[in-house]
Amino acid sequence: MKYITEEDLRDLYRKEPFTNYNLEPGVRLTPGARQFLLDKGISGFDTDTFSKGKSEDTSPPAVMTEKKEACSNKKLLRYMRSIEALFLQTEQELLVRDVCLAQSVVNLGKQFHCIMNAVNGKGAVENLICSECTGINNNNFSEDLDVCFEVTEFHIQLEKGREIVILHRLRCALYELVSMIQELLEGRANENGSLIDLDGKIYQIINSISQLICTAFGGKKCQRQG
Question: Residues 169-201: pLDDT tens digits?
Fold first, then answer.
C-alpha cells in the first residue's frame, strides 16, 4: 500500500495549487498529509479510512434502524428471562411458607410466559381475570396504580414479612420491565406490534401481586395509599 506524506502534498501544491484531491485505489494519507489538506480547505479525500482509524458502517439508515431494534429486542428478552427465573425463585420460596400464595404466583408466572411468547411474535395474550377489591377494579386493572403501600423494615417484622418482601421484589422487577418496553417504543417510526399494549398486560400482573401483598399483610381492607 502506498502512503502520501505531507511533504509530497506540499511539493505538489507548490507546483500547482489545487482545491480538490482524490485518492487513487490502494493509496492512503498519513495523518500529517490529511491535516495539510484540512488546513488548506481541500476536499475529496474523505474515503481515507486509514486516517480515520476505522471503517465506517455504510449500511443504509433503514438497515441500521432494523439492526438497532433487533438488538434492543434481544436485550428485552434476556431481561424477561431473568424475571421468569425470579418468578420461579419466588414460587419456590413461597411453597414452603404459603401454598395458596405460591399457586397464585405460579398462575401469574404462566401469564408472564405468554407475554414473553408475544414479544417473540408467538400468539396473543389474554387478559387476566380481575378479582376486584376496594382499590383495584376492571376499569383500572390494566393501569399503573403504583405500589399499594411502601414496603419498609416494619413489614419484615410481620408474620408474613418474608412473603411480603419477595412479592415486592418481583413487583419491582416488573415495573422496571414496563419502563424498558416504553423506552424501546419511544421514537420508533414503526412501532413493534409485538410490544404494543403489552405494558397493560404487565400492569395486570403487577396489580395482582399488589393484591397478594395486601393479603399477606393480613388486611381485609385495601392498604392502598393516597
Answer: 999 999 999 988 888 776 554 444 556 678 899
Q: What is the domain partition of the chain in residue ranges?
A: 2-52, 61-217
| DSSP sequence for the chain | -EEE-HHHHHHHHHHS--SB--PPTTEEE-HHHHHHHHHHT-BS-TT-HHHHSS------HHHHHHHHHHHHHHHHHHHHHHHHHHHHHHHHHHHTT-HHHHHHHHHHHHHHHHHHHHHTT----PPPPP---SS--TTTTTS----SS---HHHHTSTTHHHHHHHHHHHHHHHHHHHHHHHHHTT-SS--TTTTTHHHHHHHHHHHHHHHHHHHHT-SS-----
Q: How many CB atoms lie within 10 A of CB 38?
A: 12
- Rounded CA separation 18/62 (Å): 37
| pLDDT digits 0-9 by tens, 48-70 | 444 444 444 444 554 445 566 66
A 10 A CB-CB count for 27 gives: 14
Neighbours of 85 (CB within 10 A): 10
Please report which confidence band the pLDDT of residue 151 belongs to, taking 50, 70 and 90 as the band edges: confident
**Res. 210: pLDDT tops 60:** yes
- All three cell numbers of 171, joined, read 413487583
Contact of 68 with 183, CB cutoff 8 Å: no
pTM for the complete prediction? Answer: 0.65
